Amino acid sequence: MKGIIAKEPGGADQLIYTEMPEPKLEAGDLLIEVHATAVNRTDILNREGKLGYVNNPIIGVEVAGVVVETNGYQDFEKGDRVMGLVNGGAYAEKVVMPADRAMKIPDALSFEEAAAIPEVFLTAFQTLYWIGNLKKQEKVLIHAGASGVGTAAIQLAKVMSNAQVIITAGSEEKLDYCRKLGADTVINYKEQDFAEEVLQATNQKGVDVILDFVGASYWEQNYKSIALDGRWVLIGVLGGSTVHQVRLMDLMAKRIQLTGTLLTPRSDEYKADLSKDFISKAIHYFEQGKIQPVVDITFPITEVAAAHQHMEANKNIGKIILKV
Amino acid sequence: MKGIIAKEPGGADQLIYTEMPEPKLEAGDLLIEVHATAVNRTDILNREGKLGYVNNPIIGVEVAGVVVETNGYQDFEKGDRVMGLVNGGAYAEKVVMPADRAMKIPDALSFEEAAAIPEVFLTAFQTLYWIGNLKKQEKVLIHAGASGVGTAAIQLAKVMSNAQVIITAGSEEKLDYCRKLGADTVINYKEQDFAEEVLQATNQKGVDVILDFVGASYWEQNYKSIALDGRWVLIGVLGGSTVHQVRLMDLMAKRIQLTGTLLTPRSDEYKADLSKDFISKAIHYFEQGKIQPVVDITFPITEVAAAHQHMEANKNIGKIILKV
């Protein structure tokens, strides 16, 4: 079978679609014929050789496809359309997926749409609810609102919690899209001081939850934006990792919970539990059409380099899909 | 009645025991005749005029005493021995306490022992369980092990969770005392690199929970000491508030939950809920003698200045009590 690897750690030009051994099916795995996969920032770090925890030379952490071998697992049959996280190996014709995290694809969705779900919706679900403990009608600030996780989080927070959703993004097109997805307040971070806008939109109280993909460059403004007893979830450092002045007394005064998290390196058990909780609490919104996967653009897998470059240029609204 | 106030914001010499108006009983309050109260660091900050959220000129946030007016509240009778948190006003002959946070004193305990319970045991209980989510047999690092909160946390973590308890303190006498209370590993922070000792005691995995009273000066060592998915609870900045280099990627890599917290400024409802949960889960250990309040020394209330100086000198093991 064929799969995408990086010849050498480096840029998108290092990616090649080449003959690779079929994945080895182990106890508890399904074998999936991949129809679509999607690009994540972790794939770019992996391509660059910057991730220590990835063993699979084939890139990619999520797929939508068809079960071709159930391996004795009773909940699935050959031919079932499934989506979910994999432990690497997604950019390929076939991949193994632990059966206890596989999710059946709602009938209304194509493979390309389904491939836009697992990583970003599970991350948004995990950060908003498992970590951020978002409650009904609370206020949430979602940075990078037009990103994959951003577009997922806007919808989950509105539909599941009727939250007051405030987002930041860097272009009018992105702001408009986020408003259509349900965001109540949209802020162009290139033109506005987002902390001031957040305080204005929240009666000077600030937000209960922040999804922070940005890190260092937003530190002070995020601190200003968060409410007493706020939960600040750190899931990216696109704006730098090192903060040069952190006043711990400020964290105590506002009783802030700051949690750093990554999804990909977590255990199989965690991913299975998260997927199951997502199925039970959120999947019906997709079946009812109340929440939609957001696909920015679909590339054939042979054009993977262009797909990575598209993400690196920060131009996407929602997910970048690879059709296999 | 008489109570302790600071003439002017400043040192312990500003404290005077003087005639003050009786506290005003409002709906939901008990009126308590105070038999004993205890010194907390928040009292020192209050004396120095550094707390913005204290309205009561009379210092002190916890008491043990006798109910003299039930105010129609059914769960208590005149003459009941009670202990609990108050919203200021503790260093006095009488004080009001919201009835929904009052705790009956176990029969075996004196008023002086009971006054050693509320603030430190509720703080230890809150930080270990409500915030730190300590689970059975997990590993916990408790700084300032011989402090009031430290001595409470060692006992709760051992008795309630059979945790592996590692503490730091600054003298052999304090280390010995912590070992007697149940600490498994004791570290003299003046002589040893505590992070190295913690890693050695935990098979290089680190601890699941840190109770951090120290802040900035321990930042790097605490980071080294904490395990993957660790909960780092920040409840004091005795070693400084400002950290000059925080690497957010490190927080993400270890998936750390860092929570700043203070108990005194929290809402009445929070204190009532916390007290009730503590009664239901922990008070029987005091009745059975499995957990003991730790009293370092008792001063008559007229010697309050000496009591404050004793805390400021960091010489105490456990609580400093004022007998009224």
TrEMBL record, chains A, B:
Sorted alphabetically, the keyword list is: NADP, Oxidoreductase
Source superkingdom: Bacteria
- The signal peptide stretch is none
InterPro entries assigned: ADH-like_C (IPR013149), ADH-like_N (IPR013154), ER (IPR020843), GroES-like_sf (IPR011032), NAD(P)-bd_dom_sf (IPR036291), Quinone_OxRdtase_PIG3 (IPR014189)
GO terms assigned for molecular function: NADPH binding; oxidoreductase activity, acting on NAD(P)H
CDD domains cross-referenced by the UniProt entry: p53_inducible_oxidoreductase
> Could you tell me which residue ranges the Enoyl reductase (ER) domain spans?
10-322
Protein name in UniProt: Zinc-binding dehydrogenase
Organism listed in the record: Gracilibacillus salitolerans
Lineage of origin: Bacteria, Bacillati, Bacillota, Bacilli, Bacillales
